Amino acid sequence: MNDAGWTNVGADDTYRYAATILSVYWPEPEYHKLMARWPSLSEHLGVTWDEHRQRTERQCAFVDRAGHKVSQLPGDVDGFEAFLAGRDATRFSAEDLLAYPDLRTVAMPMVPWPPARTAVCWCGSGRRYKQCCRPHGLGTLD
Known about the structure:
By secondary structure, this protein is of the alpha+beta class. The protein is built from six helices and five strands, in the order E-E-E-H-H-H-E-H-H-E-H.
């Protein structure tokens, strides 16, 4: 299980149990589409895309400091709408956002966090991590 990005947390006679924290981030174009469709999500994701990526980075840093592995998946509006349709959601709620995505249907691999300092940043900017999102997540995590 470790090769898939999961951290072993226990075992019994039949199964090995593993866990990782999933962090869904919204690349900039998808974030803007999401906010145009559901502006109330800014309360949960951040008013601007820069605030969203700062929150994402800080959340990942907080989880990492607690000793858990973090894996990231980019969100996309079309996938989110399909997810909502699959849940027969007639009214959107924050719980829907927290439940997205359905990992049974995710085709793309999770990306482990944090990236190497000189790796391309997770946010999709094309810049190096150390010059992009890493500085946004530094500081105290109160």
